[in-house]
Design brief:
The structure holds two protein chains of two kinds. By secondary structure, chain A is α+β, with helices and mostly antiparallel strands. Chain A folds into two domains: 171 residues, no CATH class; 155 residues, no CATH class. Chain A contains twelve helices and ten strands. A six-stranded mixed barrel of chain A has the order 2-3-8-5-7-6. In chain A, a hairpin with a 2-residue loop joins β6 and β7. Chain A is elongated, with a radius of gyration of 29 Å. The relative contact order of chain A is 0.20. The mean pLDDT of chain A is 88. Chain B is of the alpha/beta class. Chain B has a single domain, classed as 3-Layer(aba) Sandwich (Rossmann fold), CATH 3.40.50.300. Chain B has a six-stranded mixed sheet with strand order 6-7-8-3-9-10. In chain B, β7, α6 and β8 form a beta-alpha-beta unit. Chain B is globular, with a radius of gyration of 18 Å. Classes of the chains: A alpha+beta, B alpha/beta. At the A-B interface, α1, α9 and α12 of A face α1, α2 and α3 of B.
């Protein structure tokens, strides 16, 4: 480290009270920003959980559908029409809907039922226990062992329940990549059983899953589906649509944005003010350094170093604290939806850089303006 | 004849404009020589500090020049003036302006660090100067743990650490009791002053006038008289 920066470092860290206040300010701001954006990211991921779990490359739906849980059933001819489009390797129907199950204890529990195409079981989950072919057995359901699993009273293979006055039997336990958003357990069964056991509208196909022959066929398939009056989206596009729905149409996005901005302002206020006080307290000393022969650029580099060092350390502590908090929360609350992504980290980093920039700008302005003559004059 | 340390010619400085204009220094010329201890004395507001600031490259005069090694320092760029101060001038401020969060030896090492010496080398040289001022054993303490006189000596060690030709003291006894103040000036005279260094002291403490080789008397922004000090008579 250059000598002048070492002086800056010692001036900063040896003033333990101020340094601690600066770190607390930035750490707290980063912590809040990461927590807010991580919760949002977690919610968005969970909102797209079915898309992730099913794993289809393309999804056909009514254009008004903006998330998996509010599907608009399509008539059967759409499936036939989609299957006849050039470039479609195969297309299968998917049922997705809500139902109430009565557990052995007599308690009713809402569930999401996913009905897989009977002939292909396309989109089937990875089983932890049981065999996938048992899904064809009488009244068979597969339960996803996710954060919501315990709400079904931790069923085992053979556990029975009631679903709309029909008997249901657990034949397998599945692993899911992602849990749902609304805290509801998920059951998999066949498409035909789903539409038979669950009261349905005239049309029953929630989504049509497509496997294109080649990626280059996707635009053509999309155009053909559009001609039918429906929408074909790739999995990424569908997840983006779901994400946009929660961001812009539910108020969730703006709330998270407001909280993130508030966190930023809190961090900026604490750090900016503390750093400004720190500079003010040392202003005469900076003036003395200038009188001794320090150049303006050297004083600026000292302040930038102090602000940057504090900001990065606070950033690291804030990220660590947020990660610990999320980990601890997930241990206690399996439903807790928070996920630290590179985007979260990037947003918090940019905000910390802005905090450091504004704080140091205030300091630099003061220090640049101090005249050594003022030191003499007292 | 002693070598010239600094020559000030027709220096003038005013603050404000129009009716608010205040003449702080009016057409002042003088010379200071290596090996001498020059006192600038006068009542408060007489322009001593302003004059000191102009000859040390801190305050730009409105007119006149400050010659050092035949060069007018006020023709230099700001960075060059900073470089000039670092290499040629040592300051002992009235309030010392030591960094309370640095150790004594680190405070003394500051000019050396600014001169791009290696950190450890700077501390080693600083230790030597602390030894000169008799504070080697206090090297690792923070300045707040030192007495006023000791802090003054740390400030002196810092001022001489870069081996400057001109050492400038601003009211060196103002924050000290009479006895300590006299001891400090006596110490400076006997240990810091040498034939390659000029010491300029701004003071209005008449108790230390006896240590001056020459005394410039200022009043109302002008030099009103030059007296030989009585050091040589002692």
């Amino acid at each position: 480290m250059k000598g002048i920066l070492k002086i800056a470092f010692k001036l900063l860290v040896n003033d333990k009270g101020k340094f601690a206040a600066l770190l607390v300010g930035i750490t707290f701001a980063v912590f809040l920003m990461i927590m807010m954006t991580s919760m949002f990211a977690g919610i968005l991921t969970r909102a797209s959980s079915t898309v992730l779990n099913i794993g289809a490359k393309m999804w056909v739906m009514d254009p008004a559908v903006n998330n998996v849980s509010s599907s608009i059933p399509m008539p059967d001819y759409v499936l036939d029409a989609v299957r006849s489009i050039n470039g479609v390797k195969y297309a299968v129907p998917l049922y997705s809907g809500g139902a109430l199950v009565k557990l052995r204890s007599g308690i009713y529990q809402s569930v999401t039922v996913v009905g897989l195409d009977d002939s292909t079981l396309f989109g089937r989950p990875e089983l932890i226990e049981g065999k996938i072919e048992d899904i064809f057995a009488e009244n068979a359901f597969i339960v996803v062992e996710d954060a919501e699993f315990r709400k079904l009273e931790n069923p085992k293979i053979g556990t029975e329940f009631e679903i709309n006055d029909n008997r249901g039997v657990v034949v397998g336990l599945a692993k899911a990549n992602s849990s749902g958003l609304f805290g509801v357990p998920t059951l998999y069964t066949t498409y035909n059983r789903a539409i038979t056991y669950i009261p349905s509208t005239r049309f029953t196909t929630s989504f049509i899953l497509i496997e294109p022959k080649k990626s280059s066929d996707i635009p053509f398939i999309q155009a053909q589906v559009q001609k039918l009056g429906y929408e074909a989206l790739t999995d990424d596009e569908f997840m983006q649509k779901i994400s946009n729905f929660y961001k812009y149409q539910t108020g969730l996005g703006i709330n998270v944005l407001i909280m993130t901005v508030i966190s930023f302002i809190v961090g900026l206020s604490i750090s900016g003010q503390t750093f400004y006080t720190f500079i003010l307290e040392n202003l005469e000393k900076f003036g003395a350094l200038k009188a001794i022969g320090a150049k303006g650029s050297e004083l600026v580099s000292m302040i930038l170093f102090q602000a940057t060092f504090t900001a990065f350390l606070g950033y690291g502590l804030g990220v660590g604290l947020a990660a610990l908090m999320i980990m601890a929360a997930k241990l206690r609350l399996p439903d807790y939806a928070a996920q630290i992504t590179y985007i979260n980290l990037g947003i918090a980093f940019i905000m910390v850089v802005i905090i450091a920039g504004i704080s140091s700008y205030i300091g630099v302005r003061k220090v640049i303006r101090i005249e050594p003559f003022d030191i003499f004059r007292g | 004849m002693a070598n010239l340390a600094v020559k000030a010619s027709n220096l003038a400085k005013w603050f404000g404009e129009g009716e608010a204009k205040t003449m702080a220094v009016k057409d002042v010329s003088f010379e200071a020589y290596l090996g001498e201890m020059l006192f600038i004395v006068g009542p408060s507001g007489s322009g001593k500090t302003t004059l000191l600031s102009m000859i040390s490259g801190i305050l730009r005069p409105n007119s006149g020049e400050v010659l050092l090694e035949d060069k007018n320092i006020w023709n230099l760029s700001n960075d060059d003036i900073a470089e000039f101060r670092l290499n040629k001038i040592g300051f002992v401020f009235q309030d010392y302006h030591l960094f309370p969060r640095l150790t004594t030896v680190e405070n003394v090492a500051i000019p050396l660090i600014l001169k791009k010496h290696d950190w450890n080398e700077s501390l080693s040289i600083a230790m030597h100067y602390l030894e000169i001022v008799g504070l080697k054993e206090r090297a690792q303490l923070q300045p707040v743990k030192l007495s006023g006189g000791e802090q003054q000596r740390v400030a002196i060690a810092r001022a001489i650490a870069s081996s400057p030709d001109i050492l400038i003291f601003d009211e060196p006894t103002a924050s000290l009791d009479g006895d300590t103040g006299r001891k400090i000036v006596e110490f400076v005279k006997e240990n810091i002053l040498n034939e390659k260094r000029c010491i300029i002291i701004v003071t209005h403490d008449s108790r230390i006038y006896e240590y001056a080789d020459r005394i410039l008397k200022m009043e109302d922004g002008r030099i009103t008289g030059v007296e030989a000090g009585d050091w040589h008579e002692k």
